[in-house]
Amino acid sequence: EDQVTQSPEALRLQEGESSSLNCSYTVSGLRGLFWYRQDPGKGPEFLFTLYSAGEEKEKERLKATLTKKESFLHITAPKPEDSATYLCAVQNYGGATNKLIFGTGTLLAVQP
Amino acid sequence: DTGVSQNPRHKITKRGQNVTFRCDPISEHNRLYWYRQTLGQGPEFLTYFQNEAQLEKSRLLSDRFSAERPKGSFSTLEIQRTEQGDSAMYLCASSQTGGDGYTFGSGTRLTVV
What average pLDDT does chain A have? Predict the structure, then answer.
């Protein structure tokens, strides 16, 4: 069964203190790995899709990387506005729905 | 592009009542998804439409749940005889075939009292 595990569950950083979030996955055939950001009371906001091991994508202070077993979301010099829950999800090749299987997320708090 | 719109944003209902939620996807998106999210959890897949055809339903979607997407445009999700366990955020998302990632709406938060 396809599964996504995110760690840590919660992370508190000081402004400017870089760190990484982890997403470990097992999937029958990876079509894509997705990172989303979710603010309280809102829907997830798309950040990145990674398709193959070794791929990297960047957006402002965020950089996502992918291996055959896990993905990392690196946050460089975070700011308080980066505080949110970060969700990882996988999509497999089975079926035609392109449904996403999500992890439980990492709650990031960046203090000024 | 106004994004994915969901109504209502919040719904409080008494146990046993029926509720209906609406989702208006991005106009050019042919794929529409419903997910459910409870506190501290990631979204869980409920059902998928390609145009007007409902192509997959999760085991989570009991007989009390029904979803429609008439004419391949907006979609509705109805829950009959609501139970306290139905309390959650119901998220709608849309995408285009071959597109990169979904666009989610802001969700409808259901509270069953």
Answer: 94
Q: Report yes or no: B68 and B82 within 8 Å, Cβ to Cβ.
A: no
Minimal Cβ distance to B31: which of A89, A98, A102? A98
Q: Which tokens hold the place of A50?
A: 């990674």
The residues near A51 (Cβ < 8 Å, ≥ 6 apart) are A30, A31, A32, A33, A66
In this structure, are strands A62-66 and A70-75 parallel, antiparallel, or unpaired? Answer: antiparallel
Dump pLDDT digits (tens) for A49-60.
999 999 999 999
Per-residue model confidence as pLDDT tens digits over B22-40:
999 999 899 999 999 999 9
Q: Coil, strand, or helix at residue A108? A: strand
User: Which residues in chain B have Cβ-Cβ distances shorter than 8 Å to A8?
Assistant: none
State whether A96 and B41 contact (CB < 8 Å).
no
Give the closest residue to B32 by CA, choosing from B86, B76, B85, B79: B76
